């Protein structure tokens, strides 16, 4: 599962600066290598303290963390939905992502030109939103044309339901709102899943601020918070410039000192990767053996066989049972055997829903 987060925003807001910080492995606190697979696509490992803790206890030959892909989607401008500035290509890039990181310029700097002449993150956000919403309207209209007749002549239940839902989504988009906030239930969203609407994708806002605002934010950040308060979206404060300075520092100690001087406990890049992972609504389980300690990505709500299938389809097909240890128990007792003796290892069947942090051992036959 290569899950992707796309970085969007107007030109000159700091997208590529951030992307480059991510791509600089030195910027990371520990072992979070990043490799650029295309000029604008990178694979980054997700920092997870639990993985390091398990590795300390098990002392395996290797440690394999989770990864996600980050895409720097350049070139979104006003008119993109009408094909302006290669707009369609960039909108297509967004369509293939699983979540969106929207970077907003919240710093003043006369030397960095703003495409609209002044710093106004809320206006900037609305420009991008509008382009995405217009594109979605196009998609919705096309589908309405397709299902309307079927819906009205009765018969096809799904067509009727889809038509009903789209009749709510359409005016919502027309009123300048994103589909993710449309007043329809989660079950109803399933009916329009295959439209792959751009404004349904989960979103995270990154306010790119100057050094003085990095610990406490600034007036621009407050404006952004106010503007997105109904979106149920996280707002992160990051200074791309500081992140790139941090990424120049050689040692971990130097970077920690730099962060402490700024009143920060963690680099913005780390925060960003973790937030992006949360955004994808994923869960992590672990396998912990002497060969390797490894994190595995699953969707929330996966059953034990589904989770086993992430390792190998044979594991899912031939699933017999799973032995499960809770992360906290593993840390308390220190090993699988100690957990077993303490009665902290449970044997679970096919209907077990894997929880975030579970340490799993699958039994299967092929
Ligand atoms: N002062 C300041 N300049 C920044 C910051 N982030 C990016 N820039 C500058 O803004 C310009 C555009 O940045 P870039 O990352 O290329 O923007 P993109 O077009 O969104 O990819 C570059 O000259 C950056 O050095 C920041 O946090 N503070
Ligand atoms: Mg760029």
Explain briefly what this protein structure is.
With 366 residues, this protein is an alpha/beta fold.
Structure report:
With 366 residues, the chain is an alpha/beta fold. The protein has three domains: 4-47 and 64-118 and 201-279, 3-Layer(aba) Sandwich (Rossmann fold); 128-199, Obg-related GTPase Ych/YyaF, coiled-coil domain (DNA polymerase, domain 1); 301-364, Beta-grasp domain (Ubiquitin-like (UB roll), Roll). 41% of the residues lie in helices and 20% in strands. The chain has 14 helices and 13 strands. It has helices at residues 15-23, 49-58, 87-95, 121-152, 157-174, 186-191, 219-227, 240-248, 252-261, 268-279, 304-311, 313-317, 327-333, 336-341; strands at residues 4-8, 34-38, 41-45, 62-64, 67-72, 99-105, 203-208, 234-238, 282-288, 292-299, 319-325, 346-348, 359-364. α1 (15-23) packs parallel to α8 and α4 packs antiparallel against α5.
